[in-house]
Backbone:
């Protein structure tokens, strides 16, 4: 991916686009990997964060590149590690409402740690690359409460996503015995997504009862990112060569799956 900002280093981030014909339908599958948050302190300085702005510029660049490749009536599935993060400044305020704040500083005066305390314990500790929360229920069983802070996709009104009914997909422990626990380094977020244009949405919704948008590996260790998948049924028409009767078309339906896994 091109260098989009002086603050973003060259990296292996980018995208790969392929075009398929399946059952008479044209599909564009685009795998993408956008910039991550380098520092929790920088991420929580303002809303939206600088990192969010970098990702917006990068995704806008990708969409401009795809503009001449994808017709309006062709399905586009854009999937991968978007590195979308929750609005950290707002999330921290939400999680620590009523808590006291304590800064641990280096000799230079910079904060090395911010501690949020309730009446009985350190409820949240934030470091440059540390996010230690005493109770992860907001990110597991109560994750719906945090969806309002998942704002980065809202900057792209032409990209659609099915309702998110799974907990944040990153960052999970890579230790076999702790595969269902979050690593205490970043605020958990829905980094891994499957997005669509309007044509793709129409295809997916042909058989609504067959649609499944979910997370895999919820009970096992599969890396720091849990794979996200989308399955749906698709109407198709297939040319069949007849004996002495010319070509004819055979109609039917079959299942299609789109999945993404990142363990980099």
Residues:
């Amino acid at each position: 991916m091109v260098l989009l900002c002086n603050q973003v280093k060259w990296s292996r981030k980018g995208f790969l686009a392929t075009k398929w014909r399946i059952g008479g339908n044209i599909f564009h599958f685009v795998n993408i990997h956008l910039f991550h948050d380098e520092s929790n302190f920088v991420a929580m300085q303002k809303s939206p964060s600088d990192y969010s702005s970098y990702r917006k510029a990068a995704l806008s660049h990708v969409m401009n590149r795809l503009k001449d490749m994808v017709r309006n009536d062709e399905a586009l599935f854009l999937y991968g590690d978007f590195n979308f993060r929750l609005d950290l400044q707002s999330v921290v305020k939400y999680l620590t409402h009523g808590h006291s704040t304590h800064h641990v500083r280096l000799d230079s005066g910079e904060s090395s740690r911010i501690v949020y305390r309730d009446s009985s314990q350190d409820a949240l500790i934030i470091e440059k690359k540390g996010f230690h929360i005493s109770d992860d229920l907001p990110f597991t069983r109560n994750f719906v409460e945090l969806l309002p802070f998942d704002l980065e996709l809202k900057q792209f009104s032409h990209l659609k996503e099915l309702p998110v009914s799974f907990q944040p997909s990153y960052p999970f422990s890579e230790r076999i015995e702790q595969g269902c626990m979050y690593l205490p380094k970043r605020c958990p977020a829905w980094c891994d997504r499957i997005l669509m244009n309007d044509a793709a949405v129409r295809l997916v919704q042909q058989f609504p009862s067959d649609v499944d948008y979910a997370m895999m590996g919820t009970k096992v260790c599969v890396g720091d990112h849990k794979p996200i998948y989308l399955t749906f049924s698709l109407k198709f028409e297939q040319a069949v060569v007849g004996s002495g009767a010319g070509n004819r078309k055979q109609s039917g339906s079959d299942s299609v799956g789109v999945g993404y896994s990142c363990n980099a």
Remarks:
- Residues 131 and 184 are 5 Å apart (CA to CA).
- The longest helix spans residues 50-66.
- The longest strand covers residues 228-241.
